Each structure stands twice: as C-alpha cells, then as structure tokens.
Amino acid sequence: MTSDPPDTEEPTELVLRDLDDAGVLTLTWNRPHRRNGWNPDLENAYFRALDEAADDPAVRAIVVTGAGKAFCPGVDMQRLAGLTARPMNLAGRRPHHHARGIPKPMIAAINGACAGVGLIQALLCDVRFAASGARFATSFSRRGLPAERGISWLLPRLTGVENALDLLLSGRTVDAAEAKELGLVSRVLPADEVLAAAQAYARDLAVNSSPQAMAVIRRQVLADLEADFATAYDRSLNAMAALTAHPDFGEGVASFTERRPPRFAPLPAGLDPEVLLAKPQPTTEGDAR
User: Fold this and answer.
1) Cα–Cα distance measured from residue 223 to residue 227, given in angstroms and rounded to the nearest whole number
2) Helix or strand run (H / E) with residue 188
3) How remote is the C-alpha of 280 from its chain's centroid?
4) DSSP 28-85
5) pTM of the full predicted structure?
C-alpha cells in the first residue's frame, strides 16, 4: 500500500482564522508544504488578518502559530534563491513591525522551526510559548545579509547586547531550552501542548482583563522603550485619568468585590491608545491614590 503524495499546491487560505467563544482568535500560517516559508502573499494575508482582528470587537486576544511541524523558518528558500545578484525591491511592502500597532495582546505558539523573518514576527508578539523541539536562528549572517527588519533593535532589548550579537553574528541555531534562557521565549512545553497552552493563556486575558487597559498597556510598554522615565511617568498619569473615568474601572472593582468574573466592554474599533497616553487630561479634585 502506497501513501498519498505530499500536497505541494498553494492553499487557498494562507492564514487560517479560528475565533473561540471567549474572543481568542488563532491565526495559523498555512503553507505547510513550504514549512510556512515567508513570501509576499503570506505577508499580505497575515497583515490583513491582523487589521481585521484589530477592528473586530469580538476579538480580545490573538494567538499566532504555524500549520504542520514548522512555525516559520524565514523567507521561502525558493524565493530567496531568485533574489540574488540584485537589490531587493521592497516597494509597496508594509513594514514588518506592523504587529506593534495592533491594540490587542498577541501570543506566539511556536510549534517548530523559527528563524529569520519568522523569528522577527515571533519577537513582535507579546508572549511566546515554544514547543520543546523548536529550533531558533537569526540566520542572516549565514546568508550574507544584515540584521533585517529591525531585529537589531528587538533582540538587544530581549536578550541583552552580548547575546544579541552572539545570535546575529553567528547565525547559530539554538534549541527551545536555550531560547528560554536567553529570553527569546518565556514558556517551553511538549509539542502537542504548546498551542493549547498559548490559547489558554490568551483566553485568561480575554476573560479577565479589560480590552482597553490591555491596549493601553501594550502601547505603554512598546512606546516607553524609546522614552525617558519622566515621559513614561507623565503619560501614565494621562492614561490613569482617562481609564479611571471609563466604565471598565468600575466593572473591575465591582467584579473583585463581588467575587465574580468581570464583564468588560469590547475594545471599540479604531481606538488609538496613544490618544489616551498623550492627551492632557483635565485636573479635578478627587481622592488621591
């Protein structure tokens, strides 16, 4: 008896979407025949899915994973081979840090190989779960490439300068245990548990945390990486004034005192957390905290 030949055709849906009843949206890169190798079509489908998730009030948290046994090993090698001996044309491409502007928490469920641009997209998520068999690499130096698409900014902030330079200069592969030790991921689990664990974590956020508070906190942390302490402090005061006037604050207090799950409102489409951080709030007399 012979097995069926492997499917080598490009799937109709490059990013699969699955929204559960708690508001957790799982986005799955769906090019398993190419180990989810990155190309412009996958990039556009993924960024489009993020835009739709950002505007959908039903979505409260996002999990990102890969179909099959790989997360994303970087740019599809077939495409990479066709780019040699000429400058790369990035005209019309959106920046790869697009995920930084999404106002909802993003969790990576790294189920397998994670390298190059796949590693960059994982690092742009807020929390990363890894399968114990996953392998990580920057790879750029071994392809004659620079540290691409802002990873030279991302890595030192997660791992420290020396570890970032080690990973970037060598392009070496590290296993999930070392990735956790370096700060690339925060959880390592058996391969058959990693997606469910990431979804359970995302579900806890979706059920118990205010969507508006999470949007503001995500923006605070990312923006404050480039700010001094005084600026970060002042913006936190603006946000405190805005959020304590929002119904979610009253609901958060009430749910705690009444010992029940909170009923937070969905995040309004088009909400810009930066407005709540930057806009000066009027001063009124009240209880100091």
Assistant:
1) 7
2) strand 187-189
3) 30
4) EE--GGGTT-B-HHHHHHHHHHHHHHHH-TT--EEEEEESTT-SB-SB-HHHHHTTTT
5) 0.86
CA pair distance 39, 76, nearest whole angstrom:
6
- Sign of the four-CA dihedral 121, 125, 127, 129: negative
**Cα–Cα distance, 74 to 112 (Å, whole number):** 12
Neighbours of 224 (CB within 10 A): 16
> Which candidate, 127, 128, 121, 129, places its Cα nearest to that of 99?
121
Give tens-digit pLDDT for 153-180: 989 999 999 999 999 999 899 999 999 9
What is the Rg, in whole angstroms, of the alpha carbon atoms belonging to the chain? 21
Contacts with 51 (C-beta within 8 Å, 6 or more apart), sequence order: none
* 111 φ/ψ angles, rounded to the nearest 5 degrees: -90, -10
For 5-25, the pLDDT digits (tens) are 344 677 789 999 999 999 999
Q: By the 8 A CB rule, do 89 and 68 touch?
A: no
Residue type, 133: G
Contact call for residues 74 and 118 (beta carbons, < 8 A): yes
The one-letter amino acid at 235 = R
